[in-house]
Write a structure and sequence with these properties.
119 residues; mainly alpha; extended
Length: 119
Amino acid sequence: MKTSSLQQIEDRYAELDYRNEALRKALEKDKAYQKLLKEKIKQIAEKTKTTRKEKKKYVLSTAEDYEILAKVKQLEHLKRSKHDAETVALIRTQLEKNWRKHLLKKLNKMLKKKIKRKN
């Protein structure tokens, strides 16, 4: 039997008209897809040198989550502007379970600044 890639499996379901929630549920039940996904996530976790603390603190359920964390870590080691540093910090918070808290905090800070300028 030919080994499929994650994308090939997703495409097969898309051809069968699975979309959005139905696609997500079908992929969750697909054993071949889940096995490939776990392997890919394991490879990415090893490649990105994700720590135990990070695995515990963040929701790293997809390959994209690991890629985001890797890029955040890379950017944190580079020289960047204050604005870029704040953006990178905010992006890191989006991997947390309670990510909305950080967005609200940032939005409130921005609103406060804009209201202050207006008065």
